[in-house]
Design goal:
mainly alpha, Arc Repressor Mutant, subunit A, 2 domains, disordered N terminus, GntR family transcriptional regulator
């Protein structure tokens, strides 16, 4: 993709576990929300097209479209005809369930990477310490 402006963010990647009891559209919604709230997706950043994300995740485009509609209804993203879906300029503050979803996603990624409990706890402590005022 060429031209001015940011390119769609690809890292960290969204993942969908088709074996999970959580529906894929909800996993996408929670994952995008977590990426926005943690700053991995900045305001105005474009999201992949519905078709591109569906192909990347190996799911139906309608599933991604449903997640994007819910994200738009929640004020996390905005969709402009012909310009795609972008992170909202002022995304809403995270709700408790969204924070838990973001934490759960981070823990799943750490476990999948082979991290043990002590290493995960240490990483969380480091993140908290980095955000404490001096």
């Amino acid at each position: 993709m060429s031209g001015p402006g940011p390119t769609p963010a690809r890292e960290p990647a969204l993942e969908v576990d088709l074996r999970s009891a959580v529906p894929p559209f909800e996993q996408i919604r929670a994952g995008v929300t977590a990426l926005v709230q943690t700053g991995h997706l900045a305001p105005g950043a474009p999201l992949p097209s519905v078709r591109a994300l569906a192909q990347d995740l190996g799911i139906a485009p309608g599933t991604v479209a449903r997640a994007y509609r819910q994200l738009e209804a929640a004020g996390v993203v905005r969709t402009l005809r012909g310009r795609g879906t972008r992170v909202a300029d002022s995304p809403p503050a995270p709700a408790a369930d969204e924070v838990r979803a973001a934490l759960a996603q981070a823990v799943r990624a750490a476990v999948a990477a082979g991290w043990d409990t002590d290493r995960i706890h240490s990483a969380v402590r480091d993140e908290l310490d980095a955000r404490r005022p001096d």
